[in-house]
Amino acid sequence: MAISPEQKQENKIISGIRITVEHAIAGIKRLGCMTQILRNRRPFIDDTFLLLSAGLWNFHLRTA
User: Fold this and answer.
1) Is the whole-model pTM more than 0.70?
2) Residue 57: Cβ-neighbour burial (10 angstroms; 0-12, 13-18, 19+)
3) Helices (DSSP H) in the chain: which residue ranges?
4) Residue 37, pLDDT score
5) Helix (H, G, I), strand (E, B) or coil at 64
6) Most confident of 3-7, 30-34, 36-40
7) What is the crossing angle of helices 45-63 and 5-29, to 10°?
């Protein structure tokens, strides 16, 4: 069953977005603190780690 040209175009757009998101998630995980279990009881510390990881990854992308 073949897909139409419109469906192919839509799949290209979706896959382009998906690969960008997957690369961003992989970059954030390179820091290490996002792949380990967080055993801290402070509220919102996981959000802080995610914010810092994303910021460091964005900094890396801009300086590379």
Assistant:
1) no
2) buried
3) 5-29, 45-63
4) 80
5) coil
6) 3-7
7) 110
